[in-house]
Specification:
single chain, about 750 residues, alpha+beta, 13 helices, about 30% strand
Length: about 750
């Protein structure tokens, strides 16, 4: 039978929808022509905004899913609260231009060539395409258009928002600030804010404070994400401090350059969050016909507290963000040579370490800094990416072959965005670094930052990395970035374009990573920036794992890793087992404690294996084997933070539950016991109350009266007692469903 063209097209469209969603369904996005309300309904959330009588986009609702027949009241222009608070500033806007008496944080601010700085954005049109909504707004008199993009993930309810600013005028204009989105919460005063702060070797410090009138600004002005703040927030309503209860709105910015998130409670108690490029020292010159794409600002809602918000973000990252999405393979157990050899790498020494690593069950051997150029310390060699012939007279191939013969793949350290002034590259191209003409060039760690915004620099970086991969069987880059920007000048371009460096540098970084992965599909990459100085949902689209901190002290890591997992999945959280005493605090820790601390994320070894005792090596080998049995659950399961190590806590407990619920893995840690008090009883979560679970010990002990098998209800409500006493003790346990229930 012949099928009409329209029917064939309809069948093809249905097939595409089934392929995308897994089943045929209508779009989760609707538009009510009568009320002029846009509505997104999916995965436990409803997000709605409308067009008011002034043609402004106005937020209406964001929170728990509403009934399908519930009518959301249409947008309305608010009356002025006073002559000091005009209707244009008290009426909430979905994406506000700075103009018409707006006093709250704008999403977009522009200066036109005639000096005008007034920008008022009104609705023009929209398009719904499956899970994507695009709304076009335009200035009331000038041909400046903004395409607002919304994409919803049906599985988590997380909405991805971004803006494309188009200059369709006949003259250039200057964008002074550009955000991806403004998120508007229900009006109220009972909100509290979670965010992360830190510094080098002390990342992931979770802050929790009341949302107060005015602004709380989270930002980096450093050219990259930064250690000091992370581009993530969670806002909780009500007095609850429980991990898994309460209403929480959360968001994360996907940008690895300078950024800003502003949490604001205005004079009428309206709470909003605006995020995008950092406007500090920003000025994007946009010529006629050109456009600027903002980063993506992701936002979600959970009724299961900040713990539930974390689990939604983790699931979203695994299925929608990471390079191997939606089913990334578990991270291999890695060995990194830095602590053992630092810059003193050579073929014989690395081969000896590789033999020891392979004997322990290591799957990936990564040679760290010191293999290239005149790289004997951090004063020289960066930029000269040729193999040092004294250290490796026959190139890297003999070492790589040795590693492969031992059953491991091979990785290598690179820092492509940096250059030492004492290098052949800098002597040939001193103009390739960020600089202001005639001004001093501030060094950090004896290095300068290459200006990746330049096309010639971008091409140089890609080409040497591509050559390294073409000539050697390398499976893994540890990509480092060991300083922030200074003197962020770009004197090779016209003055009005020089501040574009803040955008084009990061865009070119992303393009290098994307092109390398496309050309070398087996390549995996770790993002590192002196630890956690560049961790965000932008870089995670191109890298498989991140290094949360240069501080590998296993006790400190409990707090660092606790904070890290609020926004980021444990599957990307690299954790290396250090030597003891640890370099950071000179603290002596048992091998069992060090191993269990690192096993909460993506496990690796980072100590000097040449100095480990036979007993330490045996413990490491045993626990690596145990880890491989449960790493899928640890890396990609649902994380429950049962006891926090923060605020001087003597204990820390985490539980990871497999996606299908067939097993749970529990880690327990004790700093110090006092006065003979026993370790607090552990109550598990998220088990099937009616199923039977068998407990086995990974390391340590539980009280002798602990049953071998009990119901999920027993483990959650009765709980069990780990036997931990003394100082710096740890134990881990696995619970498996019995009989394939």
């Amino acid at each position: 039978m012949r099928i009409a063209p329209r029917l064939r097209f309809a069948s093809f469209a249905i097939a595409l929808m089934i392929s995308h969603y897994g089943f045929a369904q209508t779009s989760p996005i609707t538009y009510n022509e009568a009320s002029k309300v846009f509505r997104i309904d999916t995965a436990g959330i409803t997000y709605a905004f409308g067009i008011n009588d002034r043609s402004e986009l106005q937020p209406l609702y964001w929170g728990a899913k509403l009934g399908a027949t519930d009518q959301i009241p249409p947008a309305r222009v608010f009356p002025e609260a006073a002559s000091f608070d005009l209707t244009t500033t008290v009426t909430p806007q979905e994406f506000a231009g700075w103009g018409a008496g707006l006093y709250v944080e704008p999403a977009l601010k522009i200066t036109f060539p005639d000096g005008n700085r007034d920008l008022v954005l009104h609705y023009v049109s929209h398009k719904i395409d499956g899970p994507v909504l695009t709304v076009v707004v335009k200035d009331i008199s000038r041909d400046v258009f903004v395409n607002l993009r919304y994409e919803v993930d049906p599985a988590t309810g997380i909405v991805s928002r971004s803006a494309e600013i188009q200059n369709n005028t006949k003259d250039s204009l200057n964008i002074e600030s550009a955000s991806a989105a403004t998120w508007t919460l229900p009006r109220g005063t009972d909100y509290s804010l979670y965010y992360l702060t830190g510094r080098w070797s002390s990342e992931g410090a979770l802050q929790h404070e009341a949302v107060r009138p005015g602004q709380r600004v989270l930002e980096s002005r450093r050219g990259s994400t930064g250690h000091q703040n992370n581009p993530w927030f969670a806002i909780e309503q009500g007095p609850s401090d429980a991990q898994n209860e309460g209403k929480v709105w959360f968001g994360a910015l996907g940008w690895s350059g300078s950024w800003r998130i502003t949490v604001e409670q205005d004079q009428l108690q309206q709470v909003r969050v605006t995020g995008g490029f950092n406007p500090f020292d920003f000025g994007y010159h946009l010529a006629p016909g050109e456009s600027l794409q903002t980063p993506i600002f992701y936002g979600g809602y959970s009724h299961e507290g900040v713990g539930g918000a974390s689990r939604l973000l983790h699931k979203f990252e695994i299925t929608k963000i990471l390079p191997q999405r939606p089913n990334p393979r578990p991270r291999p157990v890695i060995y990194d040579s830095w602590e053992a050899t630092e810059f003193n790498v050579d073929e014989a020494g690395q081969s000896a370490l590789a033999e020891k690593a392979a004997a322990l069950g290591i799957e990936r051997f990564a040679m760290d800094d010191g293999w290239f150029g005149a790289r004997n310390d951090d004063h020289a060699g960066l930029g000269d990416w040729t193999v040092n012939p004294k250290k490796f007279p026959h190139g890297l191939k003999p070492l790589i072959d040795k590693v492969h013969s031992l059953g491991m793949d091979f990785g290598i350290w690179v820092e492509p965005e940096m250059v030492n002034p004492n290098s052949d590259l800098y002597r040939a191209h001193p103009d390739w670094v960020l600089n202001f003409t005639g001004r001093p060039r501030t060094e950090g760690r004896n290095q300068l930052v290459l200006n990746l915004a330049r096309q010639d620099v971008r091409d140089y970086v890609f080409n040497f990395l591509d050559k390294l991969l073409n000539e050697n069987d390398i499976a893994f880059f540890k990509w480092d970035y060991n300083r922030n920007w200074s003197e962020p000048g770009w004197p090779a371009v016209p003055t009005e374009d020089q501040k574009q460096v803040y955008v084009k540098y990061t865009q070119n970084l992303y393009s290098i990573l994307a092109e390398l992965r496309a050309k070398h599909p087996r390549l995996e990459i770790e993002d590192c920036s002196g630890g956690g100085g560049r961790v965000d949902l932008g870089i995670l689209r191109y890298t498989d794992q991140v290094w949360p901190s240069d501080n590998s002290d296993s006790f400190d890591r409990l707090t660092i890793q606790d904070g890290f997992t609020y926004p980021y999945t444990p599957g990307v959280m690299m954790a290396l087992v250090p030597d003891s005493p640890t370099w950071r605090n000179h603290r002596t820790l048992s091998m069992q404690y060090r191993m269990l601390s690192a096993m909460q994320g993506s496990l690796g070894l980072g100590g000097n294996l040449n100095k480990w005792t036979p007993e330490e090596l045996d413990t490491a080998k045993q626990l690596i084997a145990e880890y491989k049995q449960v790493r899928q659950t640890i890396q990609h399961g649902a994380l429950y933070r049962l006891v926090s190590p923060r605020n001087g806590s003597e204990q820390s407990v985490t539980e990871s539950v497999a996606e299908d619920g067939h097993e749970a893995v529990v880690f327990t840690f004790l700093h110090s016991s006092q006065f003979g008090y026993p370790y607090p009883r552990v109550f598990l979560q998220a088990l099937d109350e009616t199923a039977q679970y068998k407990m086995t010990t990974i390391a340590g002990q539980a009280a002798k009266e602990t049953p071998e098998t009990a119901s999920g209800a027993y483990w959650m409500h009765h709980g069990f007692d780990p036997l931990l006493e003394g100082d710096f003790q740890a134990a881990a346990f696995k619970l498996e469903k019995v009989g394939g229930q």
